[in-house]
Amino acid sequence: MSVSPPPSAPSPTRKSELPWGSRWLGVTGLLAPAGLWLLLLLVLPTLVIFQLSLVPNIRPGDVVIPSGIDNYLRALDPGNLRVVLRSLKLALGTTGLCLLLGFPVAYWIALLAPQRWRNLLLLGFVLPLWTSSLLRTYAWIAILRPTGVLNSLLGVAGLPALDILNRPPAVLVGMSYSFLPYMVLILYSSLEKLDRQLLEASADLGATPIQTFWKITVPQSLPGIAAGSLLVFITSLGDFIDPELLGGASSMTVARLIYNQFLGQTPNWGFGSALSMVLIFAVSLAIALLLKYGDSSATQR
Amino acid sequence: MTETAPNPQPDLDLTDSPDLPLDMAHSSLKPRFSLQSVFVGLMFVFMYLPILVLVVYSFNESAYSAAWEGFTWEWYEYLLSDSRIFAALRNSLTVAISAVAISAVLGTLMAVGLARYRFPGRQLYLGVSYLPLIIPDIAIAVATLVFLAAVGLSLSLWTIVAAHIVFCLAYIAIVVSTRLADLDRNLEEAALDLGATPVQAFFKVLLPQLIPGIVSGCLLAFVLSMDDFLIASFTAGAGATTLPMEIFSRIRTGVKPDVNALSAILISFSALLAIIAEWVRYRGESRRQ
């Protein structure tokens, strides 16, 4: 670092472009392999399911002739619409719960815990992510079933037993548990950057802790809140394992419905493709909303 | 160099400012401290409760009851004699190791290419590279299955590998990009100025600095590949059952006691991996300073 080059020596273009020999050879050699893979196994397949979604009543092996939006209209049947709405409700509920449970945790680790323990505490909180998500969901069956851990504890405490396994509340518990670490991770990295001098200034100027929290902390961490909520929302919207294993027959969701259209008893690839496109569209919409409003809220302060 | 210390420690700011006593700086935070730390403690319990339940049950004499009915190794012995589990484990390891190895190369090249070049269509490429992280697994699974059927490729273990490479390379590229952003570009330029060929500069200067990022990206991708149930079940051929697929079918067909033993073993293994990953990251960060 002792010899910093004079400003004119490497031209700005050379700095930002560079380095290895012919530029196009470099770009192609580095980016073509991964790009080709993504094109073949992600972009093209998505176009294929879009095409397939326009074919009503297709079964494996049929000739594909796109002929209309029947499959999309079918998603609006009362029965299927209920499934779509339930998925949205579960995803929103999970997002709300994760925010409610995750914010205090992220806040405490980022601002109140001793400095040198912070990384370790955060690691400790997200460590369960490293274990199989199937098995963690399986554990919730053991906890929530009628004779499970929860009801044993409730019995000891003299409280009435809960029967929530195979109902939407169990899905909500399972999904919140599964996605809480992601929320905490994102909120933490946002709260860690919080300008503490503003918190002190606010306290100096006579604000109560609650005023400081709503006027300083929340607005400053809004981009993190938005990013964390979006991530949890789109992950839980597409989640299959929690509704399938914890929700029972009364908790059909879009992801389960899609699964059944391909691997179930009576496959219907066209309808399944249409539902997949709806899911992709919903996720894109959520991201577009974040990009539009998330950025402006971050720059307005 | 000294006036721009990399990370101004906020705690130091508090203690160093003479006109602001420490207790006053904390006074705004204090009222919520005790209540909140109790809540945070409960959330830690919440995170580890399911894992604890699995491990405790794996030693429980009766696997079907919540009550403790005595200690036993029986489920572990039962598990060790289960050849289907081991076949599934071998399939999962084959898929994860192959997918991660290929993705490590593709993902690193991609990260370097995106960091070092500006070219028309870069934004589009960048957008596509983020897609695997954003699109729900079920949609990726559907797309891959439909596509493989359309091109007439028969399903096997290797179609799972091909599908896993899509998300593995995206995660590895993200982790490597983060590390690339912190690197000193001057070192490569110096190497080139001193007469190194571009290939030499890549292997002798850039790659060694990227290794910690590549390793932690690979560990992340490995865990995600070992954990994936949806994409594997859509793209697996007959007989190509991975560990999550095997576990799923066992859970679905009723509670099998040896799944608890399997969980306990997998959890120990994951904890070990997590510790290694954190250690690699820590080493990488401390070497940079």
Which terms summarize this structure?
heterodimer; A: 301 residues; mainly alpha; 14 helices; disordered C terminus; B: 289 residues; 13 helices; 76% helix; globular; disordered N terminus
How would you describe the overall organization of this protein?
The complex is a heterodimer of chains A (301) and B (289). Chain A is built from 14 helices and no strands. With 301 residues, chain A is mainly alpha-helical. In chain A, helix 4 packs parallel to helix 8 (168-191), helix 4 (78-112) packs antiparallel against helix 11 (222-237) and helix 8 (168-191) packs antiparallel against helix 11. The longest helix of chain A is centred in the first third of the chain and has 35 residues, at 78-112. Chain A starts with 11 loop residues before the first helix and ends with a helix. In chain A, 43% of the residues are buried. Mean pLDDT of chain A is 84; it is low at 1-20 and 297-301. Chain B has 289 residues and is mainly α. Chain B is built from 13 helices and no strands. Chain B has helices at residues 10-16, 22-27, 33-57, 74-80, 83-116, 122-134, 137-151, 157-182, 185-193, 198-227, 230-235, 243-252, 257-288. The longest helix of chain B is centred in the middle third of the chain and has 34 residues, at 83-116. The two termini of chain B are 12 Å apart. The interface between A and B is large, with 99 and 103 residues.
Helical/strand content category of chain A: mainly alpha
Work out the helix count of chain A. Answer: 14
How is the main sheet of chain A built?
A: none
The rough form of chain A would be described as: globular
What Rg of chain A is obtained from the alpha carbons, in whole angstroms? 25 Å
